[in-house]
Hints:
The chain has helices at 2-23, 43-50, 53-57, 71-77, 88-96, 143-154, 170-178, 191-195, 205-208, 221-226, 228-247, 249-260, 264-276, 292-304, and strands at residues 29-34, 61-67, 84-86, 101-108, 114-118, 134-137, 163-166, 185-188, 200-204, 215-220, 278-279, 282-283, 285-288. It is an alpha/beta fold.
Amino acid sequence: xxxxxxxxxxxxxxxxxxxxxxxxxARAENIxxxxxGSSANGMPFAVALYKGFFKEEGADVTGIxxxxxxxxxxxxxxxxxxxxxxxxxxIAVAIQQGAxxxxxxxxxxxxxxxxxxxxxxxxxxxxxxxxxxxxxYTNPRSTSQALAILLLKKAGYKPEDATLxxxxxxxxxxxxxxxxxxxxxxxxxxxxxxxxxxxxxLITGAEALPPLDNVVGMATxxxxxxxxxxxxxxxxxxxxxxxxxxxHPDEAGxxxxxxxxxxxxxxxxxxxxxxxxxxxxxxxxxNGQIHLLGMKRIIEVQKSVGALEGDxxxxxxxxxxxLPEDIRTPVQGK
Length: 334
């Protein structure tokens, strides 16, 4: 008796679900963000999630998947998600490996999250004092290695004029600094805000180097064909989150602290620092608009340490159709 009652209902329910799927009703899903929960690049997504901006814009994002970067990681992260965030170089590697991915937004426009620190009693006062010193970086072919080389170049030196020391991570780099195994450590937000009272900042990324587009939004070819409304909604929600962080840095910091395993005080400091930081007039968190010159710079930086090889035409990797009309034109400037 029960089977005779439930079977027609089950069939009707299945049909209804099929109709809803066909109509494209918003469904809960994840997005993929490189180093989410540890690096500052992904902070606007935390704000967008907790403020409800995704749902308000029409994207029912319920979770954020963290990835570690690199071409293979990008390909894995984009399996089953319509939008992700990663380094342009990692996306270029993934494309070289056969991935069908496009850059759809420009999210982090500078390296203002970086600072190079020394002990408070260090004799190193300016980057001119770096000759013959030991400078830490995380891993071979990493951004931190490339930036250390650029820092030496800015000081008028060659890479061989100092010793670059691999530490395996930013945390271990500070431990190496404490043990005098290195003289200079690179740190990034929010770790920078966490340890700012213990060490002295030698120079910040905003002071040291020109705008370098370190993180962009990406979408798969399939998502571009079938999930355009979702991609647009994510970009709009993130843009709102960036503006909210500028207008309400302390509230934004409290929201960020939840997913980044840091205290509200540290999170507030990181958000204040990065929303106020401009590199040659360019902000740290972008609104999505493409900054071609900064993107080209980061590609050349990564080629310099062997993270990328061959000729790379960044313009062929970009699709601007999902950006709001007022920011759809690429910026050629700084």
